[in-house]
Specification:
714 residues; alpha+beta; 18 helices; 33 strands; globular
């Protein structure tokens, strides 16, 4: 059916087809840093519904390499200023000085489709023969040689060694302007001078991971208000011209071109319970219904005593004056006290990292020792002030603290330290409190359907992959609740092969055993129910979750205690879909035109034979709200559907580092955070002890035992 409805689009030469998404060559486009181009197009997919077939139509977005001269594209992407001559001079120098590193950088341009015009200059670009970049030569065109076959007058054939530059000069009368630049290597084992290559406007999608600036721009481009997105979807439907489609007419197929009206409910927001010592002890459901609240006048539901801590500054005195850093720490501690925390150290160590020490880990260890000696106890948390959130020193700090020292850490940016805004201080306090054992808020018992129903272990799991084309391993992560409220979660990560979606058996044994141990350690009970929320799984892989992951989980439970057989409810959570919902009446939505928090759709567009629903639990701050699709693939606990839906909605209000309801149940969010943080645990050259987990040349050190049941990843 998908082929049938999209056949005419695929046959149209003005369309670029990417699976079920279609982009016109002249489509609306936006520029990204590095010369990349973002295009908006059409997504279309046939879905099964209740007693009918439906077509899911949405706006699609993809990043492409821009058309034009390959040399100009490379200059923009490599962020080199100046004219073409200065760029080519820089490239030639890089090839000479940093050959391996530079050629590795050029790998990003592999798989780009290009053409040349030297054989047929008058022929239009689309009619030229196209090639795919497979790599680059290690030498310039004047030093890249091949054997050329030459037929003599007597018919005999001989071979002559000739450079690429001389070949083009002799054959096409083209004298290369930049003969010292590397040549492009193609799939067909051709070598083409770089300056002669032109990037085509065909399927040249950029598959590499965007950097922070590009990602920020991409988010802004995608963040369209509901009314605008609805208009764009309508325009996409009009552009399909289903009523005039000859393929659909040949099969007698008719499609209703207007949006479906579906039935929805709005689940009530829960009451949130805060600390008893605050002026405001709870947020009633009617006040939380907007999906956001504030911490003014409220104390955290559970806090800790902070005694051994300090702050190390990774910035110079001009960027961050010492007095500004001390003022920030004092303000932060004052804010934590107002939120119920107890501070027993009014003079923590605040100092700059020693300039003479280039080894970050050595500096951190010495500082950690100083902090511990000051209060004669192991440091509870270390604060770090950094100028920017870049991989260095951020990744190094997290790596060393979490795998070597066994101490949680909190990084703050210089810009925030200088502003010292009260709202920012409260946000940091939530993360600080979570990392040292506290909780922001609890659900009122009346709003927790699991209250009084035994001992429930909530588990979230995720597998994250490296950017396409990267040889780095995938990371699997799991978090599990450590209290009976389901608000605090321990986490663990590990490598999981390369682009392997199912969590390996070895990882599952390690992960689940750790989660069960931490739950029993903190509650004194073994769970009689396990709610397993799995992220990042496609529909085609649902049965693999049951056959590979859940079977292993049950086997592990039986191996721990032969008489213990907890019941499982397994749910796949996904936001990687194209379903968007709009209020039937604008007055029924929020001020931006989105559906209200708590909106749930369980009919019409869900699976007619299975247990699934779409839940919009959050308030979209910008753009069109994207609901989470919850698909229950195993339900042994037998919890009523309404109660389970309430659990999924109400727990979104207990996300430990936010004063807003989040869009997905927290265990899945936490698993995603832990998986991303696991990238920081990859081994570095400065670490000498042997690593414990190896995957395709990448090693990852295990989490330190001291923080295995802490929320180190938030």
């Amino acid at each position: 059916m998908n082929h049938l409805i999209s056949q005419s689009l695929r046959l149209d030469p003005d369309n670029v087809c990417l699976k079920r998404s279609f982009f016109r060559h002249n489509a609306e486009s936006y520029s990204l840093d590095g010369g990349l181009v973002v295009k908006k197009g059409l997504f279309m997919s046939v879905r099964g519904g209740h007693n009918k077939l439906t077509i899911n139509v949405d706006v699609a977005t993809a990043v492409f390499w821009p058309s034009g001269k390959l040399l100009q594209l490379m200059q923009k992407y490599l962020r080199q200023q100046g004219d073409e001559a200065s760029f080519t001079s820089w490239m030639a120098n890089q090839l000479k000085v940093n050959e391996k590193r530079f050629l590795n950088e050029l790998k990003r341009f592999r798989r780009i489709s290009f053409y040349t015009t030297h054989t047929a200059p008058q022929r239009p670009a689309r009619e030229q023969k196209h090639y795919i970049i497979d790599g680059f030569t290690e030498q310039g065109a004047n030093n890249t040689f091949f054997l050329r076959r030459i037929t003599k007058a007597d018919g005999s054939v001989t071979e002559k060694k000739v450079s690429v530059a001389n070949f083009f000069s002799e054959t096409y009368k083209i004298r290369l302007q930049y003969p010292n630049l590397p040549c492009v290597k193609t799939k067909g084992n051709r070598e083409v001078p770089l300056e002669l290559c032109h990037v085509s406007d065909t399927d040249n999608r950029c598959l590499f991971k965007l950097d922070d600036r590009q990602t920020s721009s991409m988010i802004k481009i995608n963040a369209t208000r509901p009314a605008e997105r609805r208009r764009a979807i309508g325009n996409n439907v009009d552009a399909c011209k289903w009523g005039q489609d000859p393929v659909l007419q040949a099969y007698g197929m008719e499609i209703q071109p207007t949006m479906m009206k579906v039935k929805a409910r709005i689940l009530p927001a829960p009451e949130l319970m805060f600390g008893a010592g605050g002026q405001i002890k709870s947020v009633p459901g009617n006040m939380a219904a907007s999906g956001q609240w504030n911490l003014q006048g409220k104390q955290f539901a559970k806090t800790s005593t902070l005694k051994s801590f300090g702050c190390l500054i990774f910035a110079n005195q001009q960027q961050c004056p010492l007095e500004a850093a001390k003022r920030f720490i004092r303000s932060l501690m004052n804010s934590y006290s107002q939120h119920g925390g107890v501070i027993e150290n009014n003079n923590p160590i605040v100092q700059y990292v020693t300039p003479s020490k280039s080894n970050i880990q050595k500096s951190i260890r010495e500082f950690w020792t100083q902090v511990g000696n000051q209060m004669k106890m192991r440091p509870q948390i270390l604060f770090f002030i950094i100028p920017f959130k870049t991989s260095m020193p951020y990744n190094e700090i997290k790596h060393f603290c979490e795998t070597e020292l066994g101490c949680v850490s909190q990084c703050v940016l210089v810009a925030h330290v200088l502003k010292c805004a009260p709202q920012y201080l409260s946000n940091v306090c939530m993360k600080l409190n979570a990392k040292i054992g506290g909780t922001t808020c609890y659900l009122n018992q009346a709003n927790n359907p699991l209250q009084g129903r035994g001992y429930n272990l909530m588990i979230g799991a995720d597998v994250s992959h490296a950017a396409p084309g990267s040889e780095k391993p995938s990371f699997a992560s799991m978090v599990g609740s450590t209290d009976l409220h389901g608000t605090r979660y321990s986490g663990i990560v590990g490598t999981n092969g390369i682009r392997q979606e199912m969590i390996s058996e070895d990882n599952m044994k390690n992960f689940l055993t750790t989660m069960i141990f931490n739950f029993k350690k903190n509650t004194n009970f073994l769970p009689n129910r396990i709610f397993y929320f799995r992220d990042g799984v496609s529909e085609q892989q649902y049965h693999h979750v049951l056959e590979e992951e859940v079977k292993i989980m049950k086997k592990i439970c039986k191996g721990l205690n032969a008489t213990w057989a907890p019941k499982f409810t397994v749910t796949v959570c996904s936001k990687r879909h194209h379903h968007r919902f709009f209020p039937g009446n604008p007055r029924d939505g929020d001020k931006n035109g989105n559906v209200l928090p708590g909106t749930i759709i369980e009919k019409d567009v869900t699976d007619p034979a299975e247990y699934d629903f779409y839940l919009n639990s959050h308030k979209a701050i910008q753009g069109t709200a994207r609901p989470t699709h919850y698909y229950v693939i195993m339900d042994e606990t037998g919890i009523p559907v309404d109660d389970f839906q309430a659990i999924c909605n109400n727990m979104c209000y207990t996300y430990i580092r936010s004063t807003t309801a989040v869009s997905m149940i927290p265990p899945v969010y936490y698993a995603h955070l832990a998986s991303l943080r696991g990238r920081c645990h990859e081994s570095t050259q400065s670490i000498t002890p042997p690593a414990t987990s190896v995957s395709e040349g990448v090693t990852i050190r295990p989490l330190h035992d001291k923080i295995k049941d802490a929320m180190w990843y938030v």
